[in-house]
Amino acid sequence: MKIVRVIGTATATLKEAGLSGQKFMVVQPVAPDGAPTAETACVAVDAVGAGRGDLCLMVSGSAARIVRGAAGLPVDAALIAVVDRISL
Q1: In terms of CATH architecture, what is 1-47?
Q2: 64: burial class by Cβ within 10 Å (0-12, 13-18, 19+)?
Q3: Which end of the chain has fewer beta carbons closer than 10 Å to its terminal beta carbon, N or C?
Q4: Can you give the pLDDT at residue 21?
Q5: Predicted confidence (pLDDT) at residue 70 exceeds the cutoff of 90
Q6: What percent of the chain stands above pLDDT 70?
Q7: What is the DSSP string of 29-75?
Q8: Whole-prediction pTM value?
Q9: Is 14 helix (H, G, I), strand (E, B) or coil?
């Protein structure tokens, strides 16, 4: 899992049929203190109703394909939680 911040949305009018109705979010990996990391931003399927500016947990790879709402779909990243607080 990675901590990410939602920085935007992606819209696709033409897509794999199973992806219809899915919300695509552009996310930036961040450090636990919320500072952006050097990792590249990516697109993740939103399984939790996240919005711009939200801090989220993201899974990638095969774990993203078992998330409710994205199960069996051709996705590589999915948002699975909106983070309320991080304590170190």
Answers
A1: Beta Barrel (2.40)
A2: buried
A3: C
A4: 87
A5: no
A6: 98
A7: EB-TTS-B-SSPPEEEEESS---TT-EEEEEEGGGGGGSTTTTTSS-
A8: 0.91
A9: coil
